Amino acid sequence: MMIETDNLVKVFRDFWRRPVVRAVDGLSLSVGEGEVFGLLGPNGSGKSTTVKMILGLLAPTSGRVCVFGGSPRKSRVKARMGYLPELSHLHPFLTARECIMYYAGLCGLPRAEARERTSQLLAMTALEGQADRAVSGFSKGMARRVGLAAALVGRPDLLVMDEPTSGLDPAGTRDVKTLVRMLAASGTTVLMTSHLLADVADVCDRVAIMSRGKLAAAGGVSALLAKQGEMQLSMPGVGEAAAEDIAKELSARLGTPVSASRPSVSLETFFLSTVARDAPEFKLAPFLSR
Ligand SMILES: Nc1ncnc2c1ncn2[C@@H]1O[C@H](COP(=O)(O)OP(=O)(O)O)[C@@H](O)[C@H]1O
Ligand SMILES: [Mg+2]
Prior knowledge:
Layout: E1 3-13, E2 19-31, E3 36-40, H1 47-54, E4 62-67, H2 75-78, E5 81-84, H3 96-106, H4 111-124, H5 140-152, E6 158-162, H6 170-185, E7 189-194, H7 197-203, E8 206-211, E9 214-220, H8 221-225, H9 240-254, H10 267-274
Parallel strand pairs: 3-7, 3-8, 5-6, 6-7
Antiparallel strand pairs: 1-2, 1-4, 8-9
Helix pairs in contact: 3-4, 3-5, 4-5
This protein binds adenosine-5'-diphosphate and magnesium ion (MG).
Adenosine-5'-diphosphate binds at residues 12, 21, 23, 41, 43-49.
């Protein structure tokens, strides 16, 4: 297991140490190696608090959190994690390249290697053209790309992303989702939080839904979303009238109502096919080949 939490609790207290909020309330979950895990929940349900405890940035009130089999407060464990915070506070006067170089320095990379990885990451996040511009002029989507590159510069085995798609347009969202799948394919474990259900359903293997600090549901995405006791047929190349006939015949044969309808593409797919891209897509780079 990459991440294991056992009966994790976080109570925030006020100045007089009086309990104010039970942000996380007895959370037990586990994330396996190579998994893309989604932590879902409405605003204020305790997602960010959980993430910060997993990263060792916040001490639990009670319960246990284990990452790579150890405490996330150990530097040995921290060195293997990458973190994309909800808001990346990038230094406005630095360029994209300098920002990533700065984080490479924090990871303790030698200068030459830092420079090489930075170039690879700029290529992967399609920021090459903007690499030497100050990040203060960047759009939200571009700033998120810099944040992602910074989170990846230490080649983490575990990437933790807090609301990676919030505030991004559909193209930016798709890029983040593509990147997550690429990282998963290269063996990186990903934990992401979101309040946008569709984003999580598309990329996660497993999800946990949090409500008021507690686990409300957990499981494989396809299993959670599958409708029980119902099947669907697909008939490419069949016209509407023919489908109605077939439905009638089947209905008579099975003794249950059978309906025919035209499948629809998601609004996201339609939108992306209609709108011209103004940002280049992420590219698979040598960075990911381990
Ligand atoms: N540093 C803090 N001090 C006091 N309360 C906090 C703090 N951080 C978060 N909370 C509270 O904990 C609850 C969960 O917050 P959070 O984990 O940020 O939720 P989410 O990320 O799901 O939106 C909220 O009620 C929030 O107000
Ligand atoms: Mg949050």
